[in-house]
Amino acid sequence: MSIKGKAYVVGIYEHPTRLATDKTVPMLHAECAAGALADAGLTKNDIDGYFCAAGDTPGLGGLSMVDYMGLKLRHLDSTDTGGSSYLLQVGHVAEAIAAGKCSVALITLAGRPRAEGMATGTAPRAPAVPMPESGFEFPYAPATANMYAMCAMRHMHQYGTTSEQMAWVKVAASHHAQYNPHAMLREIVTVEEVVNSPMIADPLHRLDCCVISDGGGAMIMTTPEIARSLKRPLVKLIGAGEAPKHQMGGKIDLTYSGAVWSGPPAFAEAGVKPGDMKYASIYDSFTITVIMQLEDLGFCEKGQGGRFVSDGNLISGTGKLPFNTDGGGLCNNHPSNRGGLTKVLEAVRQLRGEAHPAVQVKNCDLALAHGTGGSLGTRHNAATVIMERE
Amino acid sequence: MAEAKDRKIPAPAVNVETQAFWDATVQGKLMIKKCTACGEPHFYPRNLCPFCFSDKTEWVEASGNATIYTYSVMRRAPVPYAIAYVTLAEGPTIMTNIVDCDLDAIKIGQAVRLVFRPSEGGPPVPMFAPV
Ligand SMILES: [Zn+2]
Fold first, then answer.
1. CB hemisphere CA count around B9 (13 angstroms)
2. B75–A254: do the CB atoms touch at under 8 Å?
3. Considering the domain boundaries, does residue A122 fall inside one?
């Protein structure tokens, strides 16, 4: 059984806040849900499936949020793979809808790490309950930034990737963010500014790193029949893939991500190739994340990602592959330190023709959204979704 | 030159599966696991082999010789430090810190040798220093 064409995205909402000192995390989830319902033209009581990530919904799995929002469900899935959870959940929603287990599904993400003053990327985060690997990693102070930095260092060593090439990813994101009134960083930056920004963890500079923001987002997905009864543009899922990658018992290779396994089944299911994509949302926790994932998804040959992103190739209107036209995690937002959901939202806006006119891709009928959750430097889950406008 | 300074090392989480590993670090030894069913060494150590799932795994002492696979110097920390993956002569690549060196002179491919650092209230932790 394929999920191709079995589920449509009919409602999207991105919370405008970037600093939520006056809101709780449940409030943010619920406000996002209400926004997505209003966009779809549906009501709360239409929802019979809820998909979230245990890590950003307070309580046991999604149970407290189901209670808080007063949902009556037939299906609940709180699979947590960090920032990729929501990309993963797009595929899981389609599976559940195709199997008849729910008909109107809600996906939410929310968090307020900025209001809570969390040192997101530079301080090691000790787990409340030790993980099997904890004793062999935590003493060495793995943070988020230095783990991705080790991927970048190896990529530079093995393929000749340069800091200037990585900087182009940020430059492209900043060109898009100038048009997003909600983006945290709206100033256009240059390659020189990126490579001259303070070093965080060699070779990643401050401007190679995504922002720390509060906020969230939500999506409503439904059956083809219900989608056609609503007044929104018809955007359907045509392919999905997911794959975890880890340390492989010590046979560690940091030059590639799980996208090498999540991408091919998604493209095969959709019956399309990377070159067919009019637009791509690519998880941009760091600039190196984008380069590695573009290679692994097949947008260019392995090791050529640095050259591929250079000279504005990711900038809408000038480059061959417009990416993250909302400004992405590098400039717009990274709610709850999880960038997967906002990647889907901007891809849907592009397919609907509702992106900012300055960055809207002409005749955008085929788009990809991809992300990584966990850490590229240790263990992560990759998820790829391909969507089409009817 | 940015000389690597000692930072406070949190005590590693020790459990029944890894007690022997940490007992060995007190003796100045780095132990890895090797599977007698498939012959593969692995790290971090498990009771069941992550390659063939046999429970015929045994502790073997690593030589302590390794090369740097990749590294990064964390500059945004009270005491800058180098995290790294080093590939042991026995095969597995493991997470560690590079110490006793100029942080700005670390290179991928560099030969390093096992040393130990005390942890706060726990067993010594294996680290590596340039040869
Ligand atoms: Zn084995």
1. 26
2. no
3. no
For A107-147, write each residue's pLDDT tens digit: 999 999 999 987 777 888 777 788 999 999 999 999 999 99
**CATH no. for residue A309?**
3.40.47.10
Which pLDDT tens digit goes with each residue over B45-97? 999 999 999 999 999 999 999 999 999 999 999 999 999 999 999 999 999 99
Residue among A4, A21, A216 at smallest CA distance from A97:
A4
ipTM above 0.95 for this complex: yes
Domains of chain B and CATH, by start: 4-130 (2.40.50.840)
- CA nearest B70: which of A146, A292, A151, A248? A151
pLDDT at A280: 98
Any idea what the Cα angle at residue A289 is, between residues A4 and A113, rounded to 5°?
95
Optimal mutation site among A125, A136, A157, A246, interface B, most CBs of chain B within 10 A: A136
Give the DSSP H or E segment for A191.
Answer: helix A191-195
Shortest alpha-carbon distance between residue B19 and chain A (Å): 11
Torsion sign (Cα): B120, B121, B122, B123: positive
Tokens representing A45?
């009581």
Q: Closest Cα to residue A152, out of B48, B97, B31, B108? A: B108
Domain presence at residue A276:
yes
Kindly give the pairing relationship between strand B111-117 and strand B125-130: antiparallel
Transcribe A232-256 into DSSP letters.
Answer: S--EEEEEEEEEEE--GGG---TT-
**Is there a contact between A146 and B83 (Cβ–Cβ < 8 Å)?**
yes
